[in-house]
Amino acid sequence: MSDEAKILVCQAANADLTVLGSTFTRQCSACSTRVMVAPSGERLLEREPNILVLCTLCAEARLIKRLEAGEEFSVAPAASPAELAREMTRAVPNANATFCPHITGKRGRN
Ligand SMILES: [Zn+2]
Fold first, then answer.
1. Domains in the chain: how many in total?
2. Residue 56 C-alpha to ligand 1 middle, in angstroms?
3. Structure pTM?
4. How many CB atoms lie under 10 A from the CB of residue 72?
5. Which of 12, 36, 37, 98 has its CA 20 to 30 A from that of 78?
6. 102 CA to middle of ligand 1, Å?
7. What CA–CA distance (Å, rounded) separates 90 from 74?
8. H helix count then E strand count, the chain
9. Cα of 106 to ligand 1 centre, how many Å?
């Protein structure tokens, strides 16, 4: 393994869906956007506090830069596939979403 910093890719805190138990207090290390971290991600950060938290946009930009530079990198999930699948079944509408489906639904009615 290289000594390169690991990255945890996180959805922005105002994404449409979230997972029960997610936190909304962390920020992207690159652009300071508030992100949400699912329970699996929080457990990973507890085990490895030096992991870099990045929002999806910054993570994508970083990966593209590495691809163009011909650098090698690997992508690993934050938790086992079974754990992530279990987490996905607990996805719920995000109360922090910028466009809450309840509000837009009401607006369409009026
Ligand atoms: Zn960012």
1. 1
2. 7
3. 0.77
4. 9
5. 98
6. 27
7. 27
8. 4, 6
9. 32
